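Try this one yourself first.
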């Protein structure tokens, strides 16, 4: 049974978590700026019993980092940078890929096979590594200091991470649109003289609207994963602060965005596991929230379960037979014939 998305409890659960993080992040910055509580050691009877990094306590529920800074405060400050940047990149990917997908699926049907063959090569390139090499000259601080502002570095990173995925997303959308374009009701519309633009506007776009929302959610999660990869490679969102003195400090993030919190503290995984695990858990919680929003949206608009439908498609007896047949095809063929979902 269909319902409005704002009445679906699953969607609201994921949406509320993300909005709560953003409200807390902006509210914290407006009141306290980027100042974070600091607790370097705990003492009893004037005798130090624990020094930073301090394990989680009641007053510091997520503990402190090696400098004694409150991990909860850093997570809250960095939420706005991480989440909003991921959403902007995901939106740009879908927004830029959509018109290209319409061209591939309607106007360039005969050429789509060859175009997909070229785009298919992107599936074999580790995109995180490619992004690292493209962004390293921009985000890694040179010895003379950054020549760009932090806003410019954010814009460049957003554009690079968006444009890298546009060819793949365009190919997937083109395959999906091409399937819809072959449907009988589209053929009927063409027969009575409907133009391709009208068919796209009145028939194809409404048919893929739901899948566009799902694709947007998938791209948000994919972007967050790339952030983690770049963070582990010491390439942080907004720039990596490098010292070039005689005794240099480890690379540090300029903001408290979450990938920087992982890359900056991952070496403490055994000594103080709460320090790197805190941003990792918030990455996971954010991705889970996006997945809940996708599930709730599908339930509200179609009355079905997105993940249950995918599970049935994957493990149904018919699909099992198809998998046996698919294994006989080359890996290129499997990728080339993909559709959006």
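Now uncover the answer:
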């Amino acid at each position: 049974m269909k319902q409005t998305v704002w009445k679906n409890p699953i969607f609201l659960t994921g949406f509320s978590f993300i909005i709560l993080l953003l409200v807390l992040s902006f509210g914290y910055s407006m009141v306290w700026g980027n100042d974070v509580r600091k607790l370097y050691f705990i003492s009893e009877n004037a005798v130090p019993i624990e020094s930073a990094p301090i394990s989680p306590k009641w007053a510091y529920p997520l503990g402190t980092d090696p400098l004694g800074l409150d991990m909860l405060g850093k997570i809250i400050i960095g939420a706005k940078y991480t989440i909003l940047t991921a959403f902007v990149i995901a939106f740009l990917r879908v927004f830029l890929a959509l018109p290209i997908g319409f061209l591939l699926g309607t106007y360039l049907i005969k050429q789509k096979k060859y175009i997909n063959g070229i785009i298919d090569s992107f599936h074999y390139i580790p995109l995180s590594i490619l992004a690292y090499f493209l962004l390293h000259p921009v985000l890694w601080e040179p010895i003379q200091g950054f020549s760009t502002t932090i806003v410019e570095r954010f814009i460049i990173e957003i554009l690079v991470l968006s444009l890298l995925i546009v060819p793949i997303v365009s190919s997937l959308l083109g395959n999906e649109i091409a399937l819809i374009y072959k449907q009988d009701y589209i053929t009927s519309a063409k027969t009575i003289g409907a133009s391709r633009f009208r068919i796209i506007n009145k028939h194809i776009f409404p048919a893929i609207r739901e899948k566009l929302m799902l694709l947007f959610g998938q791209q948000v999660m994919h972007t967050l994963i790339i952030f983690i990869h770049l963070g582990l490679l010491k390439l942080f969102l907004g720039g990596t602060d490098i010292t070039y003195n005689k005794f240099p400090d480890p690379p540090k993030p300029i903001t408290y965005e979450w990938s920087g919190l992982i890359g900056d503290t991952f070496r403490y995984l055994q000594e103080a596991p709460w320090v790197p695990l805190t941003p990792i858990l918030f990455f996971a919680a954010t991705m889970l929230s996006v997945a809940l929003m996708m599930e709730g949206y599908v339930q509200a608009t179609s009355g079905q379960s997105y993940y249950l439908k995918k599970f049935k498609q994957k493990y149904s007896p018919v699909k099992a037979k198809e998998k046996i047949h698919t294994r006989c095809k080359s890996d290129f063929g499997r990728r080339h014939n993909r559709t959006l979902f």
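Discussion: The beta strands are 41-44, 47-51, 240-241, 252-253. The chain has a mean pLDDT of 83.
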